[in-house]
Amino acid sequence: MSDEQRELLIETSRKLILNGINRGTSGNASLRCHNGFFITPSGIEPNKMSINDICLIDWDGNLLEGQRPSSEWRMHRDVYMARPDIQAVIHTHSTFATTVSCLEEDVPPFHYMIAVTGNNTIPCAPYALFGTQELSDVAVSTLDKGYACLLAHHGMLVSGTSLDHALAVTTEAEALCEQYWRLRLTEKIITLNDEQMDAVHDKFKAYFKR
Ligand SMILES: [Zn+2]
């Protein structure tokens, strides 16, 4: 089972490159397991990753397997500890999410698909230095009960009930950020109201139950 989880992480990291979300060694992904979580390593390109490079970290932050976990492992651990519903976490410096994160503002409900992030906005966490507990704290509180948030002047954090779910939310959130960036260049931004967004959330619930 654990080898299977390691393979899944490598496969997801490769998809993130193929989809144009990550470049080179940027970004990381993790998957919950029974005594902690598996996380991609620091400084190894997904095409060159093998299952022995995947790190295993327990809930106290001890490195049980692997050599050099991603420098953002704290953020991953703290999301799992705060959110029992979350099985997978993806962190990326994708171009459009990162661009919008530099505005230090939440992405408003300009399009109904924003509901896939679990909220009516993609909230933006305040800036904190990479790899720190401070960044993890602001990221977890901004993510709250949703599936995606921006990290100011840094990138995006996405969580999911599976790796496939996290990957789908990452891809959609990046597309929404690209659309929002274009919209932001215009004079007027019209957003959907709470009632309209409630109807989208209700329809999504019924849709995903089928
Ligand atoms: Zn980062």
Q: Which CATH architecture is right?
A: 3-Layer(aba) Sandwich
Strand proportion: 15-25%
Q: Unreliable segments (pLDDT under 50, ≥5 consecutive)?
A: none
User: What Rg, in angstroms, do the CA atoms define?
Assistant: 17 Å
Shape: globular
Q: At the first level of CATH, what is the class? A: Alpha Beta
Query: What integer is the average pLDDT?
Result: 95
Helix content: 25-40%
CATH topology name = L-fuculose-1-phosphate Aldolase
Bound compounds, each kind once, are: zinc ion
Strand order of the largest sheet: 4-3-2-1-5-8-7-6
As for the number of domains, it is 1
Biggest β-sheet strands, sense, barrel: 8 strands, mixed
**How many beta-strand elements?**
8
Structural class: alpha+beta
In short:
The protein is α+β, with helices and mostly antiparallel strands and 210 residues long. The chain is 40% helix and 16% strand.
Q: Which labels suit this protein?
A:
single chain, 210 residues, alpha+beta, L-fuculose-1-phosphate Aldolase, eight-stranded mixed β-sheet, 6 helices, 40% helix, globular, binds zinc ion
